[in-house]
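Exercise 4. Each item below gives a protein and its sequence. For each, produce the structure-token representation.

Item: Secreted protein (Streptomyces tsukubensis).
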Amino acid sequence: MPVLKCWQPAVVVLTAAIALSLCSPQAFAGYGHDGSANGADKETTPSAAVDGDKISSGVSGVIIFDRSKNGKGGSTGAVTSTSSWTPPPCYYAPKYTPKEIEAQMRQVWESSAPSPEWSLKTQNYFVKGNPYKDFNEDKKGQGYWWDSYVTEGRELDPASQDCDEMPFWVDKGDAPPADVPQSITSEMLAQLAYAEIRVPSTAVDLAPDGTTKVNLPTWAWLDSAKFKPVSVTARVPILDIEATTTAEPVALKIDPGTDDAVTYPASGTCPINADGSIGEPYAKGKADRTPPCGVKYLRSSGDGSYKLRATVTWKIHWTGTGVEGEQALPDGTFGAAQDVIVQEIQAVNR
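Answer:
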């Protein structure tokens, strides 16, 4: 596929109030869109469709996210991959009809910013048959111009600049060019949905709660109602592809906040019970038992407190168009810290 790298002109399109910088995929690609996958409405977004000469995808770009089964509430947060893997910072997907891209390019050519050399190259590319003729107007309704999007929150990531190829045409039903690895697929949708996963906070229930004693086992547990699988579905309606990414809690890691402590179990990792709960609630009569999940502090916290951190590991997998069964994605973690005051046990001598 013929391409021109860093092809965007340095021009300010005043009518759109958008600055188009020379090597920014957010720039030209963002004209008429917000340049991101997600938009402002996190729950309900209209489906993308082609209406006459315009690809109508609302504020959310071409990807529509269904977050109705995601974690909710102010205490939720995004998971962090347990490896160096991250969801893609940019990708290619349908963005323009022939009329849309023609209107934008002619507006740029008529401005004073592009160099004559750049204008000639892009006119050859889009109009004069090298490789496209007249913006593929004769193929109207038979396909789309694909261009780059930047994943929301990754705008300042240098890797977002990797999607710097010229827009390219893909007929309906055809796969995008094999030499453009960032082209949207169901697997990539699953990876982008990974970035949208939100899981609940991991503030654990403790007994004793808040203040404990030196050498006294402190029980820790999480209610099963708080830790259920969550999922996000990402779809591209005009391509009829989708993927659902699901996160399931599998273990809780206890970090006491000091080396002067022992954890239960010794590894500090508490498995998920069959009912989805973690650990076991403390109840009267269990004082002489070892907690299945918890911590024992060996030294007082003095006038301060220890920061006990509880981190849940989430197993993440996906299903989607064109694949059979569940496909694995890297595990994710999300944790929170809470204060634990540890006091010396006072003995009275008589």
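Check: The chain has a mean pLDDT of 83.
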